[in-house]
């Protein structure tokens, strides 16, 4: 089986679904944010504060290039689609699944997740978070080969739908 790449906004469930897909398929699971944190030796928030978002996006492109041909389950960061270069790379990759989630679902999740500090949403209002999300929708759509709606569905149901459709 070819690898599976998961894209979608923060709080869409990319990591949870990625881990379960890995269990079901036996493929290794890679989380791009974790890879970047390993490389930079600090949190993403600290890296944004020190070097800015563009430097982080550069790191993200480098990781994407490195894993382009790997047969693994990949959970990407929500902003992977921001660079045109990354969108082109994603189009050449193994099935790319857009985990489509509504703001009504991901905003409360982001607010309740105290384990990860996300610089682009921390201390933002729901309206401001929507403003980060909305311009990205066409990018997620154009970069993916399959769209899976995740609202009101369990990770098991989502994984089942992915495996039935790739
Ligand atoms: C980001 C999403 C985060 C992380 C960084 C930026 C974004 O990943 O890469 O905080 O711009 O959407 P998750 O989607 O895994 O939270």
From TrEMBL:
Cofactor(s) essential for the protein: Mg(2+)
Cofactor binding notes: Binds 1 Mg(2+) ion per subunit.
GO CC term, one of those recorded: cytosol
Known catalytic reactions: shikimate + ATP = 3-phosphoshikimate + ADP + H(+)
Enzyme Commission number, as recorded: 2.7.1.71
Keywords, sorted A to Z: Amino-acid biosynthesis, Aromatic amino acid biosynthesis, ATP-binding, Cytoplasm, Kinase, Magnesium, Metal-binding, Nucleotide-binding, Transferase
Positions annotated to bind ATP: 11-16, 118, 153
Enzyme class per UniProt: transferase
Pfam families named in the record: SKI
PROSITE patterns: SHIKIMATE_KINASE
CDD domains: SK
Residues that bind Mg(2+): 15
Subcellular location: Cytoplasm
Known pathway: Metabolic intermediate biosynthesis; chorismate biosynthesis; chorismate from D-erythrose 4-phosphate and phosphoenolpyruvate: step 5/7
Binding site for substrate: 33, 57, 78, 136
MF annotations from Gene Ontology: ATP binding; magnesium ion binding; shikimate kinase activity
Main subcellular location: cytoplasm
Its biological purpose: Catalyzes the specific phosphorylation of the 3-hydroxyl group of shikimic acid using ATP as a cosubstrate.
Family: Belongs to the shikimate kinase family.
Subunit and interaction comment: Monomer.
UniProt protein name: Shikimate kinase
The species this protein was found in: Enterococcus rotai
Organism classification: Bacteria, Bacillati, Bacillota, Bacilli, Lactobacillales
This protein's encoding gene: aroK
């Amino acid at each position: 089986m070819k690898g599976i790449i998961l894209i979608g906004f923060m709080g869409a469930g990319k990591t949870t679904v990625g881990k379960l897909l890995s269990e079901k398929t036996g493929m290794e699971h890679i989380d791009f944010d974790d890879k970047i944190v390993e490389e930079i030796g600090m949190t993403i928030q600290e890296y944004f504060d020190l070097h800015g978002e563009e430097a982080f996006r550069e790191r993200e492109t480098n990781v994407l290039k490195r894993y382009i041909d790997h047969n693994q389950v990949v959970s990407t960061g929500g902003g992977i689609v921001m660079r045109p270069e990354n969108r082109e790379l994603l189009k050449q990759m193994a099935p790319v699944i857009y985990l489509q989630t509504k703001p009504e679902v991901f905003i409360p999740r982001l607010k309740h997740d105290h384990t990860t500090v996300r610089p682009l949403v921390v201390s933002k209002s729901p309206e401001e978070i929507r403003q980060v999300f909305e311009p990205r929708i066409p990018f997620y759509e154009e970069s993916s080969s399959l769209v899976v709606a995740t609202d009101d569905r369990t990770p098991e149901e989502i994984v089942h739908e992915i495996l039935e459709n790739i």
